[in-house]
Amino acid sequence: MAHSPSDDQLVVDLPAGRLRGAAEGGLLVLRGVPYAEPPVGDLRWRPARPHTGWSGIRDATADGPSAPQPYQEGGDPVLGGHGAPPFDEDCLTLDVWTPAADGARRPVLLWIHGGGFVSGSGSLPGYCGATFARDGDLVVVSINYRLGPLGYLCLGPGEGSNHWLTDQLAALCWVRENIASLGGDPDCITVAGQSGGAVSTAALAGHPQAQGLIKRVILQSPPFGLDLPGPDAALERTAAFLELAGVENEAELRTLPWPALIGAGLGLFARTARWGYWPTPFLPVIDGPTLPRHPAEALLSGAAAGIDVMIGWTREEAAFGFALDAGYAAATREQVIERIAETFGGARAPAVYAAYARSRPGARPHDVLMDLITDELFRAPAVRLAEARAALGRPVRAYQFDLPTPAYEGRLGAAHCLELPFVFDNFDQWSHAPFLAGLAPAVRDGLAHAMHRAWIGFVRTGDPNHGGLPRWDPYDPGTRATMRFDSVTGALDDLAGDSRLLHLTRVT
């Protein structure tokens, strides 16, 4: 059994300065640690700057504010909320969980939260790193970074874009420089993220400034099918944002308080929404200097070529955003075929609809649409990445999470985000989440134990074959082995074969 740190062990000396943490469940926990200068005032919409440190002993027992974001009292019907106050632009902080601030050089897990590029927080209870630190003898770091208009708004060549990525680079460099003092190994860092955080993880891994800093990545449900804008398209969206914010130029925009920026961002949701597409008013910008290519492509060469990769998706990703929407539930066959035509062309759309309908007996038009969106945005591009890396002799570990939730009469299936409490194996921290209602504890807990141990094994060694899982081989061109996580777990050959073959014929 782990012993709680003594009072004198709660104060740690880092290159950045001295911190006083807290003892929690046998771990030393540090919260609200600044890794970059506050991006406020003249530093709003500027690249992150390394924090200059502090004098004396800084208290690190309370989480820092979350990045400004939309907030709905009472949460949402799926997650129950994905970001809670307080919010503040001074948000560039991180939390650390470590078994001890000693010289043990434990593997490090750096977690990047998702949230559609507009919401979330690294200090959410569900992202508590205690289970990983305790069960895997790891040092876990979870970060906050700029979101929505403050992180993703493109202001042109002079100011650049992708300030969120400069935040994450600063956090990675902070970890590299300070983690040894917290019992971690700076030469064994795994970066993991889910959804938008998985896009961030890939972008970070492929960034030239990160070369040699990351050993492994875990990509959970990366929406690599997103069509990321270049500077011209991004600036068109910025012009719409300025109009919604009621200002004429950047100088006026800089005078607005952050709540006004978040309000204008809500307007951009409505203005950019398209039927049958996941709403994404703010996106990473392929601008050249900060993000030279799509993050999925970044994992095929350069800084990320030798990195160990795990990638996966849930079977019904799109149900998260669409299954509980009455309008989408009433979709007609004709509407869905029109949507399919935007991807496959009008001539092939009826045949593609029929192929999706055959794969799910009794499928309604709504079900076909859900599978189409899941494939376009998540499954098909993840498989393409696995195929490309395997062809280069750099295979990945691929998985699909299949366990459906009984919540909402089963309409959510194995929805986006559902694997998160299984990976962290901390259901007590997700009691607020409606989408977990009704899961059988024996099935739930057994699968969580297996997934959690597999993630620990991958972080520690690059091999997830730990903790009693059936054999999980790398994805290669011969077998296309993919682990299927369900009430009965096992690896299957070419699990996503139907989607893979169908999406080879896309015309856009």
UniProtKB/TrEMBL annotation:
Domain Carboxylesterase type B: start-end pairs: 9-486
Matches recorded under SUPFAM superfamilies: alpha/beta-Hydrolases
Lineage: superkingdom: Bacteria
Classification via Pfam families: COesterase
Residue ranges of coiled coil: none
Family annotation (PANTHER family): CARBOXYLESTERASE (PTHR11559)
Protein name: Carboxylesterase type B domain-containing protein
Source organism per UniProt: Streptomyces subrutilus
